[in-house]
Amino acid sequence: MRLGLAVLALLALALPATAVGSLPLPYGIVDAEAPETTPLRELGFQLYAGNCSICHGPDGMGFVNKPEQEISGVTVGRGPSLRGVGEQAPDFYLRTGRMPLGTLGEQPQRGPVLFTDHQIRALVAYVGSLGPGPSIPRPHPERGKLNKGLQLFTEHCAGCHQVVAEGGYLPGAEAPPLDEATPTQIAEAVRIGPYVMPRFSKRAISDGELDSIIAYVQYTKTPNDSGGWSLGHVGPIPEGLVAWLIAAAALVAVCLVLARRLKR
Amino acid sequence: MKRWLIAAVVFLLGRTKRKPRAPEPQRMVAAGAANPRAERWFIGLLLASAFCAAGFIAAYALDGIPHQTQYLGLGLGLSFVCLAAACTVAAKGLVVTEELEEEYSIEHVSEQDTVVQIVEESGSRFTRKKLVTGAAVTAGGALGAALVVPAVSFGPILETGKFYDTPWRRGRRLVDDGGRPWPAQEIEEKDFYTAYPEGADREQLGAAVVVVRLRPQELQLPAGRDGWAPSGILAYSKVCTHAGCAISLYRTPLFPPVEPKPALVCPCHYSTFDPARGAEVIYGPAGRPLPQLPLYVDAEGNLRAGGNFSGPVGPSWWGVRMGKPT
Fold this sequence. Notes:
The complex is a heterodimer of chains A (264) and B (326).
Chain A: H1 2-14, H2 16-19, H3 40-51, H4 53-56, E1 69-71, E2 74-76, H5 88-95, H6 117-128, H7 146-156, H8 158-161, E3 168-170, E4 173-175, H9 183-192, H10 207-220, H11 236-263
Antiparallel strand pairs in A: 1-2, 3-4
Helix pairs in contact in A: 1-3, 3-6, 5-6, 5-9, 7-10, 9-10
Chain B: H1 2-16, H2 36-61, H3 68-94, H4 109-122, H5 129-148, E1 174-175, E2 192-197, E3 209-213, E4 233-237, E5 249-251, E6 263-265, E7 272-274, E8 280-283, E9 292-293, E10 295-297, E11 303-305
Antiparallel strand pairs in B: 1-2, 2-3, 3-4, 4-9, 5-6, 6-7, 7-8, 10-11
């Protein structure tokens, strides 16, 4: 049965329009039936065919201009070409659980990682082999400077991700909190620009500056709340609300005291 | 006008039909003593309230003093505190009150009349009525003025020429924060950059611009802006036209067919501008597009300004739509 699926997956590459229809829906994972000694790229090819080609097309060519359509009861989504994205993008999207996408057309968001580490390495090797592209970055946050990182994060990132990386909103999209992001994932996101995030070139943010930014993001996971009550680090709105609650309680107390004294 | 006429007619009719005073009934209580101490406090507190409100206006007018915001808050806050204290003093010491307990539901007309009579006979505790009225008017006027005066910050109506004055001239190079010129080919799609006029004061409102690159075929710039965006490179003022925050968000889709289209966004109130159509407002409170800076690429491949902005830079003010003064 599993061998049959793998064969079907292989067929999907040759005959996408017909074979795709017989694959399971893109929820869950279509595993590859392959011996342990299978080369990574070959395993990745099989996993790609079963799980990714429905939107990204055969050989990572992408379905860019075609509208979403149903083929034999299966919705084939539009997806970008993966040629030239290198190993960086598949590593980011698979290790943060952003892919496979739950619903076609939605914003890719952090979720449970569906592939094993070995499967991810196989898929990364396969997608990386589709065309020349950036490799997985190796950031060195220990070389970064925290104060420089705060300054750079405020300038480039805080507008959407909030100054202590709690996440936020912008019209039409959600900026995720960065509390689960690893240094490698932050470096990848800065260079990829997932969804509607800008893609920062090395001229805009150098690798050294990126180290500082990552050092700062790591710091925000356990910030030093010298003021005391952090209120979730979400800024002046809840702080103002709490202040108003305290002030309102005090005012009510004053009113009660005044009323009692006047009554006497 | 009509309402005023009706009010005047009602007032006149009411005056002529005033009921003759009923004969004085028998007194119930003796007239109470005046309370000059409470009255002095009342007047003093009202004047203190007026003084604090005037202090607010003074702190507002004296631009550039240290801790101005704190003084503004202190002035307005103390003014309200003094007013509240004056009202408390008046309620406790000056206004005659009489309580009468009764069940709900039955209306004791005669007892209500009794209360009215007692209150009237108790006499007024106010002895210096003119002074009290004067103090109240002063306090109310000063506080009202303090609340209205900050409207001056909405900006001038007539002398607006300075809003069009920016450091940008035709031929001035765009440089990054390190002072290096921006080569056109280093401006990449999906990234956004901040640029400044070479050799000019960067603190000026009109200095900073945000530079993005779109595909030339995506552009739908307003008429008269041909050649302003060489190779699809666009420059807009970095100052939001709503409240003057810096445009520091660039929404740019990785996969345009299914994702929101490119937009420049202000993080303060989410004003969203479409860079492909001359930074037209597509969402949020901003009332007009970001001013565009015309660009051209010089012989060395660096970006240069082709002139001044397409409109006034910075947050809107009274009279922004009156156009550029000649």
